[in-house]
Amino acid sequence: MTRVCVVEWPDGLQVGSKAWAALAGDLAAAAPELLITNEMPFGSWLPRQLPYDRAAARTWADMHEASLPALACLAQAVISSRPIFHGDVLANEAFAIEDGVYRTLHHKQIFPAEEGWQEDGWFAPRRPGFDTHAIAGLTVGVLLCTELMFPEHARALGRQGAHLIAVPRASGRAMTTWRTAGAMAAIVSGAYVLSSNRVGSADGQPPVFGGQGFAFAPSAVTLGETSRGMEMLVVDVERDVADAAKSAYPVYVSDRHVRP
């Protein structure tokens, strides 16, 4: 069993701020073994509109790089994402820091392209694929925000033995679709699905992020969600429960008769 924490952290978060001190204190008291943050958690959300701004992107990437040591102090293991440069463009890199060691987990492959979330014009992956990794005693896969909307990837992670699918998000205030996608990901993968989100807007400009991190069991039963006043949720992820779900309906069902 692994104690895993999801959060809703404010847009514009910076290490050293009062908000950072408060959330670090709460996490120290809760002592989770694994923390899942929201997507690219530091600074104000940048890919709101086009055109792509390379100078601003560099500042944002540098802020995340400088924040890694402080992030690593929050739990034994942390899963998050950050903007990194390759050539003149950004990749959105999911990573883990476990016992102080940084590992790349996944590059976001699927991007929205609309006002507030012009990510398709800001990001391109450098690494392909959706793979699982051993983190905090669990087999873990990552889906970054919009990737949760494509259950074939959750199913593939389940077939790799995932106990947990971590979903860092930067999504708005309409939650019905996100909850449905999270529940469906749990159903098709036989894995726990835990997601964190940013909340609010640092400068009052759109988009306004909706918070409400959530946790689903492999059965798609809701284990809880965050809210204003309860910005952190800790749940127990049980390997045996996720392993047993792999032989339950519909996870065990084969698609061998489906033509490519």
Keywords:
13 strands, Nitrilase/N-carbamoyl-D-aminoacid amidohydrolase, alpha/beta, 13-stranded mixed sheet, 260 residues, globular, single chain
Can you tell me about this structure?
The protein has 260 residues and is an alpha/beta fold. The protein has a single domain, classed as Nitrilase/N-carbamoyl-D-aminoacid amidohydrolase (4-Layer Sandwich), CATH 3.60.110. The protein is built from five helices and 13 strands. Strands 1, 2, 3, 4, 5, 6, 7, 8, 9, 10, 11, 12 and 13 form a 13-stranded mixed sheet that branches. A hairpin with a 2-residue loop joins β3 (77-86) and β4 (89-98). The protein is globular. It starts with a strand and ends in a 15-residue tail after the last helix. One of its GO terms (molecular function) is hydrolase activity, acting on carbon-nitrogen (but not peptide) bonds, in linear amides.
